Amino acid sequence: MIKQLITAGVIASSLGLGFSAQAAPLNENLCGGSPNGLWQLLGVGMDGVLKAENPDSSVTYQTSSGGFANIIQMQGDTCDLAIVHAGEAMKAISGEPPFPKAVNNFRAIGVLYNWAPMQWVMTQDFSDKYGIHSLQDIADKKPPLRLVLNRKGILPSMVGESSLKALGVTPDDIESWGGSVVYQGSAVATELVQNRRADMWANETFVGSSAISGMAENRPMTLLAVPDSVIKAMEEEYGDKPYTVSADAYTWLDHPVQTHTAAAMLVAPATMADDEAYRITKDLIEHIDVMQGVHPAMKQLTPETLLGQSVVELHPGAKRAYEEAGLL
């Protein structure tokens, strides 16, 4: 009887009918962003996703200056996977600065989030004093605004500058009005606003971010609406999509505010083996609850969200996983 079972097992294995061994573990290097930011949490999430399928799999998170650097690093052997904004991918594919030439040898695994809206957060006292309720009002009324944008050279600060440019405003203009523009991370920006050394902060970040909450601890705040013309310009230049911050998003907000949102996606080199990309994508689809658990805002992530972009071509292996899951 034992001999018959062994024989049956050998036959079934040779025919691919069962008794298959667990696939070899996946060990990936993922290039993200800062060591303590959201993208680091996404790296932890991806590690959990692969481990949920095979406990011996792993994702090693590597810090980076952001998506632009990640695209460049994927040209070598540094990154097996990377997180990039749609806008950064657009710049790479079209060969626009900071890229000296077109870079198109990377493929999409899936969108990780598309709900990081551009938020122009202004102190209520400055808004009341100068009658500023929208980004257009800044261009029209030319107040002595002390503006903080994110660090120079990364996508959110570029989007901030481009938004103002779409209204005919430059940092030099703001300085000529008696204001200033400085480029700092969220921690310093929070401190500047709290200490009454800045009037407004602009960044593409989750609604309810700790930075905005920190600013509002001791200063009344408001959120500026973004004109349709700017939203359209950011959609064309960076792939952003229209977004409405709901009236109940903050305790101090009593009306919905229109703006636009960035999307971030997981990408891989075009040279990644199809089966490897397939397994990563399949694991992400089947264990998406792991990613949903890394941050309250990530609860919005669904298998359908993963396909919510048209900027970067899907990796063939990823496409196969989506097809098998009935998502394509």
Automatic annotation (TrEMBL):
SUPFAM superfamilies, per database record: Periplasmic binding protein-like II
Signal found in the keyword field: yes
Family annotation (InterPro entries): TRAP_TAXI (IPR011852)
Signal peptide: 1-23
Keywords associated with the record: Signal
Annotated PANTHER family: SLL1037 PROTEIN
Protein name (database record): TRAP transporter substrate-binding protein
